[in-house]
């Protein structure tokens, strides 16, 4: 049974441990990485291979006479092993993506026999592995990176294939998976309004008040996605909706001010359900994200996400083995763990838009076949156990993948940098000169219904004191203000 109850303590799959050292590293600036950022990578890649150290010969390995033997090289630390993986990944990323049938490449846990292992590897994602065929196996031996056989190779031969030249010490893996944006297309259910409910009882596809993260939303030209969270705009302090570009816009010609509906149009959202208008967005090789400013038509809960006990407390960097959860319009509250970093792939959107992504987060379910990414979940915020935002969900793999389901997310720090917002409140300091003085206090002359005798009009200046608070007005028994 799926363990997606947010109240139960989650656990990593058996045999896996968190790798705190396996995080996104600062952008490389050395020549060794230049092939991943500039054109003409093949010559530079060949140069990298040419300067790779040659393995020591048997004669060189023998201790010289009169010595106590060669020094033993110390075992590399976890941080050094991770840096080596990242270096190999950057050098070979674009070359691996050019392999026929390749859909993505990243660094993550190696999968053996459908089970995660604690070994880290450069992972190539392909649409499907080739079936057993002696001809294909023979061709694979000649062109190792063009053919990825599913089986058929002896165990000792499997270890020698799909190696990265110059990085023979780096483990590799091949995964069957294809990816697409998680926009909703299934038919909505028929629902009726009921009494106020707790967050655990809410149907996230309905019209929800107050606005909160985890519910249905869409733009005017998109079917449906998920309202990730309500955040603070750092430029003006206003509250905005955070979701994906392909959820709130989805059209390269869309302009700022386009309406956003809650629920989404596919969930019967209509003109009276416009709760925000598109403000700004970022759609590039690192992010698929957008902000929409609220119209004020509904109340809201900033920082809150359905089925989570606390609001988002901040932002955290992902690392391999990190437990994360989200609340999506389609799958509801779900748990997963970060099983891959530096994910790179080309994602095809509706309308023929294709965007290449780099340095994304790859998330796997805690138990194979658990649902963590269905159409309509795009825009959800992945949150750590400490309620820190980790990533913005934007895509998942196609059905019937070998391991069940995967999810893809933009690193949240990149999203925040691109859109300039905060999950914590932003405050404005208002100067005294910007505050308008209160209007005069009108008091009519003549007797009122209670028989009191008002004395006229008191100027607003009489009501201001040294602390900018109202002064008490002392009134004589006759009804006139005391002057001394």
Offer a concise description of the structure.
The chain has 484 residues and is of the alpha+beta class. The protein is 12% helix and 29% strand.
**Rg over C-alpha atoms, rounded to the nearest angstrom:** 30 Å
- Give, in spatial order, the strands making up the sheet with the most strands: 8-7-11-12-13-10-9-23
Count helical runs.
Answer: 7
Q: What is the overall shape?
A: elongated
Helix content: 10-25%
Unreliable stretches: 30-61, 149-156, 187-192, 455-470
Percent in strands: 25-35%
Notes on the structure:
The chain has 484 residues and is of the alpha+beta class. The chain has helices spanning 41-50, 58-61, 78-97, 134-142, 155-158, 245-248, 412-419; strands spanning 19-23, 102-112, 115-126, 172-176, 179-181, 211-213, 216-219, 225-226, 229-233, 239-243, 259-261, 274-283, 288-294, 300-305, 314-315, 319-320, 323-328, 332-348, 354-365, 381-384, 388-397, 407-411, 421-422. The strands form four sheets. It has an eight-stranded antiparallel sheet with strand order 8-7-11-12-13-10-9-23.
């Amino acid at each position: 049974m799926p363990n997606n109850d947010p109240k139960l303590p989650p656990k990593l799959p058996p045999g896996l441990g968190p790798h705190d050292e396996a995080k996104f590293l600062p952008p490389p600036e050395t020549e060794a990485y230049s092939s991943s950022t500039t054109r003409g990578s093949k010559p530079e890649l060949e140069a990298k291979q040419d300067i790779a150290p040659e393995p020591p010969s048997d004669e060189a390995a023998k201790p010289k006479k009169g010595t106590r033997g060669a020094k033993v090289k110390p075992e590399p630390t976890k941080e050094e092993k991770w840096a080596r993986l990242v270096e190999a990944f950057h050098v070979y990323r674009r070359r691996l993506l050019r392999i026929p049938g390749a859909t993505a490449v990243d660094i993550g846990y190696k999968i053996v026999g459908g089970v995660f292992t604690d070994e880290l590897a450069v992972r190539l994602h392909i649409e499907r592995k080739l079936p057993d065929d002696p001809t294909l196996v023979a061709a694979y031996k000649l062109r190792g990176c063009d053919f990825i056989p599913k089986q058929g190779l002896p165990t000792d031969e499997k270890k020698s294939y799909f190696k990265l030249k110059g990085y023979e010490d780096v483990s590799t893996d091949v995964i069957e998976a294809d990816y697409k944006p998680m926009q909703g297309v299934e038919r909505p259910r028929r629902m009726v309004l009921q009494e106020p409910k707790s967050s655990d009882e809410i149907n996230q596809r309905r019209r929800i008040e107050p606005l909160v993260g985890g519910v249905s939303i869409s733009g005017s030209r998109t079917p449906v996605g998920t309202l990730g969270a309500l955040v603070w705009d750092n430029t003006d302090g206003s509250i905005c909706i955070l979701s994906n570009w392909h959820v709130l816009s989805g059209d390269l010609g869309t302009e700022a001010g386009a309406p956003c509906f809650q629920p989404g149009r596919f969930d019967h959202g209509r003109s009276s359900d416009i709760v925000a208008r598109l403000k700004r967005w970022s759609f590039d090789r690192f992010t698929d994200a957008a902000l929409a400013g609220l119209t004020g038509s509904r109340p809201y809960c900033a920082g809150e996400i359905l089925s989570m006990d606390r609001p988002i407390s901040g932002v955290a960097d992902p690392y391999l083995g990190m437990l994360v959860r989200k609340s999506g319009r389609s799958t509801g509250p779900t748990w997963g763990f970060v099983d891959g970093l530096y994910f790179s792939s080309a994602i095809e959107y509706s309308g023929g838009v294709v965007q290449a992504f780099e340095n994304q987060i790859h998330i796997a379910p805690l138990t194979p076949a658990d649902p963590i990414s269905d159409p309509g979940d795009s825009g959800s915020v992945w949150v750590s156990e400490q309620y820190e935002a980790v990533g913005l969900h934007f895509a998942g793999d196609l059905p019937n993948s070998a391991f069940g389901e995967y999810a893809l997310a933009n690193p949240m720090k990149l999203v925040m940098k691109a859109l300039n917002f905060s999950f914590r409140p932003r405050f404005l300091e208002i100067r005294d000169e910007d505050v308008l003085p209160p209007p005069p206090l009108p008091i009519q002359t003549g007797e009122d219904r209670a028989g009191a005798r008002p004395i006229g009009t008191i100027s607003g200046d009489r009501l201001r004191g040294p602390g900018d608070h109202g002064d008490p007005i002392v009134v004589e028994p006759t009804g006139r203000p005391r002057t001394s």
